[in-house]
Design goal:
The complex is a heterodimer of chains A (335) and B (287).
Chain A lengths: L15 H37 L5 H6 L5 H10 L6 H13 L13 H36 L4 H15 L2 H15 L15 H27 L2 H8 L4 H31 L1 H7 L4 H11 L2 H29 L12
Helix pairs in contact in A: 1-13, 5-6, 5-8, 5-10, 5-13, 6-8, 7-8, 7-11, 8-10, 10-13, 11-12, 12-13
Chain B lengths: L1 H12 L6 H23 L31 H37 L1 H16 L2 H11 L4 H27 L3 H8 L4 H9 L4 H24 L11 H10 L5 H29 L9
Classes of the chains: A mainly alpha (335), B mainly alpha (287).
Chain lengths: 335, 287
C-alpha cells in the first residue's frame, strides 16, 4: 500500500487527540447497549409470562384435560396460579432472576439445570456451523467481488439464491436419505461419535452460507461503488488492495452484527434439525417438554435462549466498537 | 403495438444489472400457482386414503409423484400445500405490513415519546428469538391457520416499522408535505395521501422477501407437528410424514421440499427484482 501523501487523509491513521476523545463516546455507546440488553431480557421474561397465562389458568394446560376440576384447583393452588396476576408476575420475575423456573416433572430436577445440561450439545452444533459458514462465505464473497462477472461469481450467485430458499430440515432429510439410508456412511441418530456432527451441521450451514455470502458481497460492492473507493483508486491503490483492505474492513461492521444475530437465532432455531437427528440438545428437550406439557422446561428454555441471544448481540456490539473507529467520535444512530 | 409497449416499459423500468430476476421470480410463482390449480383439478382429493396403494412409487401410471403411508396422492397433497403456502404467505404479509407500516409512519411522523416507545418495543420484539416462542405458544394455543398467521405476523412487523419510520423522517421534510400542511390537511390525510405512496416500493420488496420466510415458518412448525394438521393441507406436514418412511419411500419427503424451495426462491427473486428495478445509482465507484 502506497504511503498516503497526507496523514490526515488516511482514514485509519490513529492520532492521539482522536483516540483520547473517543472513549467517553464509546462508554456511552456501550452503556446504552447493556441497558438495551437488560430491557430485552425483561421483555422476554414478560412475554413468556404472558404466554403461559394466555389461556387463563396454566394449571388447566398442565392437566391437559385429564384431571377432574377439583384436582385442577388443587394443582393451581399448589403452584400458586390462584394468586392475583400482579403478585404472580412479581414473584415470577424474582424467581427468574435467581434462575428458578420451578421443577420439571419429567426430569424431577430444577428446570434450569435440566436445560443447562442439554445446552452444550446445542452450542457445539451452533459453533461448528457458524464457523464453517463464516469461513466459506468470506472466501466465496471475496472471490466473487474480486472477479466480479467472472465464472465463479456467475456460478455462485444463482446457487446461493437457490440455497437460501431451501429449508434446513429438507436438506437434513435429503442428507439422511443419501448418506445414511442409501450409502450407510454416517450415523443418522443421536450424538455418538464426532461424525454425528457432520449432517446436522451441514444442514444448518448451507442456508446460512447463502445469506452470509450474499450480505458480505453486497456490502463490499456498496463500498467499491462509493466515492471513498474512487478516491482510494485515485491515490494509486489497486482494486485488489481496496477490496481486501478497505471494503472487507467496512463490510465486517455489518457482517459481525449479522452473524451474531444469526447465531442468537440459531440457539433457539436448531429445534427442527435437532428433532430430525434426535440430537440431545435443548431443541429436542423443548419439543419433548411441549408434548408432555412440562411448562417449567418450556419457560426455562425460552428465557435461556433469550439470555444467550442477548449476550451474543452484546458481544457483537462491543466487537463493532473495535471494528468501527467512528463509534464514539460522532453520533452513531441505531445499529 | 407490442414493440411500442415494450419500449415504453423499458423506458420506465430502466433494466439494470439483475432486473431479469423479477421476470424469473414472477414466472416461477405464476408457474407454481398454475401447477397447483391444474394438479388439484386433475388429482384425487389430497386427503383421500387408499391403503391398497400405500407407498406406491412415483410413475406415469396412477400416482405421478407416488403415495404416502396412508395411500394419499403426493401430487394432490403438494398441489394443495402450495395453495396453503400462498395463503399463509399473503395473510402474514398483509397483516404485518399493515401493522408495521401504521406503527412506522406514526412513529416517524408524530415523533416524540410515541416514537421512542414504539421503536423500543420494536427492538425488544426483534431481540426475542421467534422459534421457541412459537413452540411455546403452540403448546398453549389451538392450532389453526388464524393462530399461526397471527404468531408469524407478530414476529414479522418490525422490519416494516423500522423502514417506514426511516423513510417517513425523510419524506416529511419534503416541500409537498409542508404544502399539504399549509393547505390545512389533517395529519392522518397527509400520512395516507402523501407519505404512503412514497413507501410502496420498499414495502413491496420487504413483503416478497417476508412471504418466503413466512411460508418456511409455517412448513417448519407443521413439520414439528405444531402448525397446521389435517384437514389443512400443509407441505411441512407431508414432509413430517415422509420423514417416518424415508428408508422405504424417498418421494414423500422430497417433492414437498422441492415445492417449498421453489416457492421461496420465487419470492426472493421477485423481491430482489423489485429492488433492482427502483435502485438509484451512486455517483462514484470503481466497479
Amino acid at each position: 500500500m502506497a504511503p498516503p501523501p497526507d496523514g490526515v487523509l488516511d482514514p485509519d491513521a490513529p492520532t492521539a487527540t482522536v483516540a483520547a476523545s473517543r472513549w467517553p463516546g464509546v462508554a456511552r455507546y456501550a452503556a446504552a447497549r447493556v441497558g438495551q440488553g437488560i430491557l430485552v431480557l425483561f421483555g422476554a421474561l414478560t412475554a413468556s409470562f404472558i404466554l403461559i397465562h394466555l389461556t387463563g389458568n396454566p394449571a388447566t394446560v398442565l392437566a391437559g384435560g385429564q384431571l377432574p376440576e377439583a384436582q385442577v384447583q388443587a394443582l393451581s393452588h399448589q403452584l400458586g396460579y390462584d394468586r392475583p396476576l400482579g403478585v404472580q408476575y412479581v414473584s415470577y420475575l424474582a424467581n427468574a432472576v435467581h434462575g428458578n423456573f420451578g421443577t420439571s416433572f419429567r426430569y424431577g430436577t430444577s428446570a434450569l439445570s435440566a436445560v443447562l445440561s442439554a445446552l452444550p450439545n446445542t452450542l457445539t452444533l451452533i459453533a461448528v456451523s457458524i464457523v464453517a459458514a463464516v469461513v466459506i462465505s468470506v472466501v466465496v464473497a471475496t472471490a466473487s467481488v474480486l472477479r466480479q462477472g467472472g465464472w465463479s461469481d456467475r456460478m455462485w450467485r444463482p446457487l446461493l439464491s437457490a440455497l437460501q430458499g431451501i429449508p434446513d430440515f429438507w436438506i437434513a432429510l435429503v442428507l439422511v436419505l443419501v448418506l445414511s439410508v442409501k450409502l450407510h456412511w454416517l450415523p443418522s441418530l443421536g450424538y455418538t461419535t464426532f461424525s454425528s456432527l457432520i449432517m446436522p451441521c451441514v444442514a444448518l450451514t448451507l442456508p446460512m452460507l447463502a445469506s452470509f455470502s450474499r450480505l458480505l458481497r453486497a456490502s463490499m460492492l456498496d463500498f467499491t461503488d462509493s466515492d471513498v473507493a474512487l478516491a482510494l483508486r485515485a491515490r494509486g491503490l489497486t482494486r485488489r488492495e481496496i477490496v481486501l483492505h478497505h471494503a472487507m474492513r467496512n463490510a465486517m461492521v455489518v457482517f459481525v452484527s449479522y452473524v451474531a444475530l444469526q447465531a442468537g437465532w440459531l440457539v433457539g432455531g436448531t429445534v427442527i434439525v435437532e428433532t430430525i437427528f434426535a440430537w440431545p440438545g435443548i431443541g429436542t428437550m423443548l419439543i419433548g417438554a411441549v408434548q408432555a406439557r412440562d411448562l417449567a422446561i418450556v419457560q426455562a428454555t425460552v428465557v435461556l435462549v433469550a439470555v444467550a441471544f442477548t449476550l451474543l448481540n452484546l458481544a457483537a456490539d462491543l466487537a463493532v466498537i473495535w471494528l468501527d473507529p467512528r463509534i464514539g467520535r460522532e453520533r452513531v444512530s441505531g445499529r | 403495438m407490442a414493440e411500442k409497449r415494450r419500449s415504453a416499459a423499458r423506458r420506465i423500468a430502466r433494466p439494470r444489472l439483475g432486473s431479469g430476476s423479477l421476470t424469473a421470480g414472477l414466472i416461477l410463482l405464476g408457474g407454481m400457482l398454475v401447477f397447483s390449480i391444474v394438479a388439484t383439478l386433475a388429482s384425487p382429493s389430497p386427503t383421500a386414503q387408499d391403503l391398497n396403494h400405500a407407498l406406491a412409487g412415483p410413475g406415469p401410471v396412477g400416482h405421478l409423484l407416488g403415495t404416502d403411508a396412508l395411500g394419499r396422492d403426493v401430487l394432490a397433497w403438494v398441489a394443495g400445500g402450495i395453495r396453503t403456502s400462498f395463503e399463509v404467505a399473503l395473510l402474514v404479509v398483509a397483516l404485518s405490513a399493515a401493522f408495521g407500516t401504521a406503527v412506522g409512519v406514526a412513529a416517524g411522523y408524530l415523533g416524540g415519546w410515541l416514537d421512542a416507545v414504539l421503536m423500543r418495543l420494536a427492538d425488544i420484539q426483534l431481540s426475542i428469538p421467534p422459534l421457541p416462542l412459537f413452540i411455546a405458544a403452540s403448546a398453549i394455543l389451538a392450532n389453526n391457520m388464524l393462530t399461526l398467521v397471527i404468531l408469524i405476523s407478530i414476529v414479522g412487523w418490525v422490519p416494516y416499522a423500522r423502514l417506514c419510520r426511516a423513510q417517513t423522517l425523510v419524506l416529511r421534510e419534503r416541500g409537498y408535505v409542508a404544502a399539504a400542511r399549509l393547505a390545512g390537511r389533517r395529519r392522518a390525510t397527509i400520512a395516507v395521501t402523501h407519505l404512503l405512496p412514497g413507501l410502496t416500493t420498499e414495502i413491496a420488496v420487504l413483503g416478497s422477501l417476508q412471504a418466503g420466510i413466512a411460508l418456511l415458518w409455517e412448513a417448519g412448525l407443521s413439520f414439528l407437528g405444531l402448525g397446521l394438521q389435517p384437514p389443512y393441507i400443509s407441505l411441512g406436514f407431508l414432509m413430517s410424514q415422509g420423514k417416518e418412511v424415508l428408508a422405504q419411500a424417498w418421494w414423500v419427503a422430497t417433492f414437498p421440499g422441492v415445492a417449498l424451495a421453489l416457492l421461496v426462491v420465487g419470492f426472493n427473486l421477485t423481491g430482489d427484482g423489485i429492488r433492482d428495478l427502483f435502485a438509484t445509482g451512486t455517483s462514484g465507484g470503481i466497479r
